[in-house]
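Dear colleague,

Following up on Tuesday's group meeting, I ran the structure prediction for the four-component complex that the binding team flagged. I've pasted the input sequences exactly as they went in, so you can double-check that nothing got truncated or mislabelled along the way. The structure tokens for the whole assembly follow below. Feel free to forward this to whoever is handling the docking comparison.

Inputs:
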Amino acid sequence: MASESESSSRILGVAEELAQRRGFNGFSYGDIAERLSITKASLHYHFPSKADLGQALIARYRQSFDAALHAIVRESPDARRRLRRYADLYCNVLVDDRMCLCGMFAAEYSTLPETMQTDLKAFFDANERWLSRVLDAGRRDGTLAFHGTPKERAHLLLGTLEGAMLVARAYDGVKRFRTVARRALADIAAP
Amino acid sequence: MASESESSSRILGVAEELAQRRGFNGFSYGDIAERLSITKASLHYHFPSKADLGQALIARYRQSFDAALHAIVRESPDARRRLRRYADLYCNVLVDDRMCLCGMFAAEYSTLPETMQTDLKAFFDANERWLSRVLDAGRRDGTLAFHGTPKERAHLLLGTLEGAMLVARAYDGVKRFRTVARRALADIAAP
DNA sequence: GTCTATAGGTGGATAGAC
DNA sequence: GTCTATCCACCTATAGAC
């Protein structure tokens, strides 16, 4: 893993914002260059092809997501609290008028380079493994109650949050998202 | 409402497929022209700008969706059965390796022309009105059971189905979608 | 309605100087 | 690492002949 130069991480920050707001096919090297007041050629020095840039975006996003998940486990012992904080991660993205990076890339899936497709699935897999464990533990200790396997529930919950986010963005609807997310979590809380 | 020429509807058919698979920013007049063995200039005769094409796509999609919803109401009196058939609409899109047209456009929302944004919201509004009514009726006659308002539930259900679709497509996962959709519907079936 | 031809712009990407 | 300059492919869109 290359230790990131400051230039690279500034580039990734701008690219991430654009990708989350407009999609991978919705921004160009020109857009990034303009915002950073550098040239497109300089960008190609750091990320030779757009596929490289996209892969770096997913890697970075995943790292920060993983860190957030670890923090949740460390700081919140209760399963319901963990899920609420998980949903808050999505919410914080939405208030900044962004879509989840990987949800956005999922929409564009068939147009992405293979490397990005592979890393994208790995991101979702990691999310679902984490959710599965939290759901399983919560049901065992009696704080959660739901039908089906934890894995199935994890699929459902991930889909619900991504989908609620997707639709809410068209309505500038952070409030809408919050209501839906709370409802979804309340449904699996033990009575 | 212009009665559609045969050329126009053939163009829309191809454009719809491309839009559902690759997104509005993921296909071009050139792609359509190639598949229909005509020139790009001919396409511009029928749809002067890409915004016009996009608007026509949403209008057409909404018409066929509305027709399907009416058919469901006509043929299925039971609320649970109606919801199952509603989910089947999504499933039939997915098996063709497509995403819901409007779910795809929702991802690209901020890059779309204003006219398309407006029509997109109207599509979701209509869907949620229909779902609300079905959910409300089902709870009244005792076939469904859920917390919160029918409108809230409609938001949740729509988000869940769109999101499950979004993620499932990355896994070539019709089966995955079906499982998630069944689970979501089972959650609101009366015991 | 469909064509040829073309305009005017932007996309990702590279060569080579500094 | 960043620049200028440039390549070539592709994009949406238009003019005008048939």
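Residues 5, 7, 38-39, 41-42, 45-46 of chain B lie near DNA strand C (CB under 10 Å from a C1').

Cheers,
M.
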